[in-house]
Amino acid sequence: MIKIKKLNHRYNNRKENAVRDVSLHIRRGENVAIIGSSGSGKSTLLKCMNKLIEPTSGNILINDEDIINANKNDVNRIRSKIGMIFQNFNLIERNTVLSNVLNGRLSYNNSLSTLFGRFSKEDHLIANENLKRVGLTKHTHEKVMNLSGGQKQRVAIARALSQQPNVILADEPVSSLDPKLMKEIMDLLGNICKEKNITLVVSLHFLDFAKKFSSRIIGMRDGKIVFDDEPAQLTEKDVVDIYGKTKDWYLYGKAGF
Ligand SMILES: Nc1ncnc2c1ncn2[C@@H]1O[C@H](COP(=O)(O)OP(=O)(O)OP(=O)(O)O)[C@@H](O)[C@H]1O
Ligand SMILES: [Mg+2]
User: Where are the domains of the chain?
Assistant: First the structure.
């Protein structure tokens, strides 16, 4: 599903690479957590995966298609099947829940009709079905700005699902939520992806979450992958390798044991 070969990314104004020599193969339907300290390169790696940022070198295949060297139309087509979920939800706050979820259908429509908010019956059907799946039917016509954090992330999940994606990339989807909601949202996301055989790649801060919710853990440190295996294989030494004996290790890693 996702094949990454010798990926490097260095931001313009930086001396060091944010992602260093990353090679990775993620199969269809896998549920992968990327963990690591702040600045270890998790977001950069996720953003490279759908070419939100262009890697300095290396290659990425999504479903056997080269997204990095594709032309603009092809990048858009490949991206239309990749749902994105962010820590800060990235929703249009003044618009309704339904309108935000319908935005997941944009790539299935021509831009003129969507400019006037015209979505097809099928689009509405799909949006409503996904709102139901995330438990938000009651809030369909409410403005996003009036919802709680957990509800907003549910809207973002419904929007991603409306793309009918085969991959969901989630960059710290639960970091702005309280622990109870964190679990709820991770359960929801994990269950839906399992049901629909969607490949899920999620960056997480807390190791115990990654162990609970993912079937594969990728540990990053200073832009490099330093661990890649099933949660059961992770030893305390690996955790120290990932986080270093830092505040992050104490905060995020140690709690996983
Ligand atoms: N837009 C940018 N310009 C320059 N450097 C950047 C930019 N974004 C990230 N970096 C640098 O790249 C490195 C990796 O950052 P990245 O955001 O990928 O880490 P992260 O693992 O997602 O961290 P966090 O857990 O804090 O979200 C860091 O050293 C960071 O300072
Ligand atoms: Mg990040």
Answer: 1-81+201-257
